[in-house]
UniProtKB/TrEMBL annotation:
It comes from Sinocyclocheilus grahami (Dianchi golden-line fish). The gene is aqp10b. Belongs to the MIP/aquaporin (TC 1.A.8) family. The chain crosses the membrane at residues 30-53, 65-82, 112-133, 166-187, 202-223. Gene3D superfamilies: Glycerol uptake facilitator protein (1.20.1080.10). Keywords: Membrane, Transmembrane, Transmembrane helix, Transport. It catalyses: urea(in) = urea(out); H2O(in) = H2O(out); glycerol(in) = glycerol(out). This is Aquaporin-3-like.
Amino acid sequence: SSVKEKNNNQQYRAEIMDRLLKRCRIKSRLFRECLAEFFGVYILILFGCGSVAQVTTSQNTKGEYPSINLGFALGTTFGVYVPKGVSGAHLNPAVSLTLCVLGRFSWTRLPFYVWSQLFGAFLAAATVALQYYDAIMDFTGGHLTVSGATATAGIFSTYPADYLSLWGGVVDQIIGTAALLVCVLALGDPHNTPAPPGLEPVLVGAAVLVIGISMGSNSGYAINPARDFGPRLFSYIAGWGDEVFRSLLCSSRLHLIDQKYSKNSNTVQYYYNIKKFAFYFNIFVNVIYSCDTKLNFQQSLLQSSVMLIYCSRNISDYDQC
């Protein structure tokens, strides 16, 4: 009788749990997929940026560059396992966009996936900052900087090396992202030799690992807009300031400015502000012009992009800009 009572109690608890789960179940399929993408990217950034935080704040005494590669590789692996059965585990706007172009994913779902991925990366960066708050404050002395001996902005997002030019950075990211996409698409191609069922996340993590080992020195192999922009936005809000965005345009050419205007640092800032004003004013004029003449808005943005590239290439000579 006691055995029957135990079985009855277990069955009753199981029924209660089933009822609760059914009531709590999210009915919207799109919302479930977005939530799955959110948690997948969250796991990826939590382990990846967490490994960078440990290496940085310990000054390489508790890990080195290979441990960062492993952190992002294993973070990718477990990040793919979490949402794989719900959303397909894109975890990357570049992957989602590529699948849309290939006709394997709906364009209407793309913005929802991208926002979920960005939000997951943002909150994961906030979690890492909370977990390593004391370590970051001790390492930096309370001064949050993007560059220098005690820079910590690199915990959350990637930055170009001092020697890297603007076009070198563009080429670097194109090659790295293309390599990732080729590997991901090959692993899931039924007409090729697809990965064994259940092992896809492990092999995707291995692809991230080998990209990090072979393509990480130039600009940190972000190869994922959500992985970089979400944490970068957090670092901007959390106290690192707008330098987290400005350094992307200026770091590769800043030494030229320093050499030309080393006698007066105010001159550097003055000419930099002129360049920035010229670029944004050009965007404004092009948008107004496109509205008046009914031109394609994309054409005006293209003109603005050309202006930005021209200024960046000629950053050592502000008279031309």
